[in-house]
Amino acid sequence: MSDISEIFEYSKNKTRVLVLSSIPSVAKLLKEVLDFNRKDFDYFLHGGSSSTHENDFVIFETSDIENAATFHPNIVLITDEIPTENLDVLLKTIVSGGVLIYPENFEETAQNSENYFRKLTFGKSEIQNLNGAVTLKTEMGSIPVNSTDENFLRNIEGIKLLSQQFGVMEEEFYEPVIGF
Predict the structure, then answer these.
(1) Angstrom distances, CA of residue 140 to CA of 29, 38, 100, 101, 133
(2) Distance between CA 102 and CA 52 in Å, rounded?
(3) What pLDDT is attached to residue 60?
(4) Residue 24: CB atoms within 10 Å
């Protein structure tokens, strides 16, 4: 399935999870965390990678707001590099009672939405880089990470909030992050 209408038809009776991002490692980390925690899900990633096993959750990754809106998501993660213009097109299509996870700089856009859904905001992750060793500062302490991609690292808190929608709590989240 490569056409958005086919993907929507396949997923119309599932919990549709949208990752609106142009950073491929965001969806890859989400997939890694869910696999590590033995969560069942189907997915359609931007590079053409997909898996369909008739699971209740289906993840769709795109940076195209119009495709994202056609997906009619139940749960949405928007990463901070996505431009805010035209986001209202997507926000109108989030299923009532759904969840929107967004960076702090999108606060005004999210709050102006007239659609009914839960709004969860996230801040930039606190990152420390000492001589090439990158760590995240968390409530659990410093967590080492293997990535130096600042765009990706800024969105870790959003990925954590999205993982919680699958029942993955903070401690369960950071264990696979260390090896990512």
Answers:
(1) 19, 22, 25, 22, 18
(2) 27
(3) 96
(4) 17
